[in-house]
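Record type: ASSEMBLY
Status: queued
Input:
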Amino acid sequence: MSASVAARLNAGQLKRQRQLVTPEGLALPLTIATKGARAGALMLDLLIIFFGALAILLALGLLGFSVLDAGTDGEMSGAAEFFIVLIILLLFLARYGYFLFFELGPKGATPGKRALGIRVAARDGGRLTAEAVIARNLLRDIEVFIPTFFLLLGGQSDGVMGAAAFVWLLVFVLFPVFNKDHLRAGDLVAGTWVVEAQKVKLAEAMSTAPDRSQEYRFGEEELSVYGEHELQVLEGVLRQDNPEAMREVMFAICRKIGWQAGTGHEREFLEAFYAALRAHLERGMRFGKRKADKYS
Amino acid sequence: MTGVNLFGFNDIDPPADISAASLRSDRFRLEREVDWQRLEQIVEALEKNRLGRIADDDLLELPVLYRKAASSLAVARETSLDAATLSYLEALVRRAWFQVYGPRTGLFAWLRHFLLGGWSASVRDIWLDICIALFVMVAGTVVGWLLVASDREWYYALVSADMAGGRQPGATAEELAETLKGTEGAEGLTVFAASLFSNNSGVCILAFALGFCFGTPTMLLLVYNMTLLGAMLWLFFDAGLGWEFAAWLSVHGTTELFAILLSGAAGLHIGRSMAFPGSRSILSSAAAAGKRSAQVMAGCVLMLVIAGILEGYARQLVDTSFGRYAIGGVMLFFWISYFAFAPRPRDHDGEAEG
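Status: finished
Output:
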């Protein structure tokens, strides 16, 4: 059961893998961001915009009203005028400037995208230009803001025209669902896509553990039952360092290679087996022979 | 990484004992991981935009460290089965790649490039779309005029009541002339200018964004907006105030309508490049057109700022038709000569292709 879930997860990830060839001729793997991550990032950003604008408006309002009170009769005082202009410009910037500002930065991501570990990148492997960021964010207007206002104002209940407009807007909103790179209309026009950009910490080297190749000797045929996939599973088990899991894996390996498993030395056994198996497989690699998993 | 820790970087501990590693691929990794971690620290600082915290030596070595990490990755892929190291290296090279090949121009460098020719060059690039948009706009104006001339009821259908503000069929010439008057003081005009800017930019961005659907909605939007103008033109000419109305309109109109023309053309450019991509794929054709149009659009917002100021201040404060024509004419002349003659900037880094 869990194995099939893992396989499905892996298949989902494989479908999102893309290759980007750097100018050095190196193929860099990229992973397209999931629809969920992008929707989540958008929600976060909209919340930040909404509450940010609200907070500034409230602060300005408090200041502005005290100024308005100071002005006599109906005439608008200069300060009040200034505040109203500020509010108009602020709302304009909130709608068009927020995404632009953050995506032009060195992280290529808004705070919402950063929180979910994704960023904007150029689809052709070149540089992410300012023009591309501008283009993808101008189209956000018909993809995000106009549908939002439309729904908030209840436009969809406006007879045939309302329904037609609703369907029309839905095309834009659902655009990313219907292409394999999850491009939205803005990405398509700007030549960008949104990819995963997580940081990865460098884990400890595996083979600095004491050398036990004298205590555990594994023969050629014992090592050739497994491939790279099994090696990586074993690496994961060792890095997690869970005694229960290590025992199970040890018994499984011993059954497979016909050894008599004893308890108490699981980690030592697995480390030795890992080192021997990796040395065996890497030797094969150097001669151009790769073994993907136990079936190949 | 010896020396004093002046820049707030963590010192990187050299790996324990390289020879203790029994695997050849692990020794390979341990020998190089100091470089990788140094690269990671530089990239980290670049991502946080803290250039001041990076030592000059580090910055100079960034390309070298990046290439080292990239070649380490290439070697590790062929010789190492350490999944953790491989995924670390992939993420590191990817992050470094984003920084090394990231946007190299700052905002001000981009603005300079943009104003000194980048903008006008991209406007010239979409000349065909500008012609189409101009034709559509003129056609829209004529249609508006003809509709209202044939049946006055059309005026109420086209121009909403709050927009008309007293300008409606049946109003006397004096009433109409009143709506064209300026105001005495400058009070309240800033708010007017700012709201005009915000509103007009919204329309322009919409005209651009709708170009995505093969340009048809953009044309509809242009036609709709211009029929309004045609209807109003008819109204004032009918009352014998055509000359004054055109003057009133020209103060900001030459800039504002120009901006609407350009944004409509930018939208059409995208739509056209997707409908007729030529020898390229639709995606790459759309992307190239999108970048070109984005530059035009950034300029449109700038034009609308100017139009808002002209509309908010100049139109209200200058009361003579001649003065209004002079301002409008000078602006039109300025825009046309700027777009036609500002030279294309020299591209040493291919920032703006096409």
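Annotation: Strands of chain A lie at 17-21, 27-31, 118-122, 192-196.
Annotation: Chain A touches chain B through 74 residues (CB under 8 Å).
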